Amino acid sequence: MARRRPRLRKPRGTGEHIAAAVIAVAAVTLVVQMAFAARHAVVRGWPLLAVLTAGGLGYGLWRMLHSTRTQRTRTAMLALLRITLAEVDAMNDQEFEIALRDLLTRDGWSARKVGRQGDQAADVIGQDRQRGRIVLQAKHTKVGGKVGSGVMYQVKGTAGPVHGADIAVVVTNGAFTRDAKAWGERHQVHWVDRDRLRTWAEHGTPLHDLLRLAPRPPRRATRRRAARTTPIAS
Question: Which of 32, 96, 128, 206 is the most core-located residue (most Cβ within 10 A)?
Fold first, then answer.
């Protein structure tokens, strides 16, 4: 048989009523005493709390200022960044991607390295207020190596649909085949070969000037043009 749960019942008789009243008064007294003790602890300990709070705020402010100062120092150093082709040739794949990220940052882009296994043809992604999002595919080769059209197809297929890029660029320290250059120019996949890389990395010419990347038209203007060109149904 299932055991019946005990149920609370109302006090019966004078003795039980008195006992219940005593317990209630004791409980209320205990709660009041705890409230007074907590208030007393806060009153006595508020200087310590104030010091701890001020210390936490001060530490947070120091961290923010330190981070800002570090970022400014790095930006100032990158503004002077120059990388020779000899230095590029001595890099491995990862170092080459980091170098491209730093060069983009030098040119005023907000850039990050994303290259890894399964990166879908994007090693560096940059963002610029005027020019939008750019995707760089890095191809570090031996001197004399050539990049073929297959790389251009891959970048074209993922830059916009996968990464939301407005600009796609393939960068190599080698060269491109004639077909790769022609296909890229027809399908808006920019290329930076060894000669262009020297101009960008070693001579300091910004990438947007090197590739003549025009600023995007304002969205409002684009919408107005679309509205003007949309035929009106009769």
Answer: 96
Is residue 94 a contact partner of residue 86, using CB atoms and an 8 Å limit?
A: no
Closest-CA residue to 85 (of 191, 201, 232): 201
153-157 mean pLDDT: 95
Structure tokens at 52: 């701890």
Cβ 167 vs Cβ 213: under 8 Å = yes
Residues 6+ positions from 168 with CB-CB distance below 8 Å:
134, 135, 137, 155, 156, 159, 160, 188, 189, 190
Tokens of 40: 């007393």
Radius of gyration (C-alpha) of the chain in whole angstroms: 34
Quick one: pLDDT band at residue 6, thresholds 50, 70, 90?
low
pTM above 0.90, yes or no: no
Residue 156 Cα to chain centre, angstroms: 23
**Pairing between β-strand 132-139 and β-strand 124-128 as defined by DSSP bridges:** antiparallel
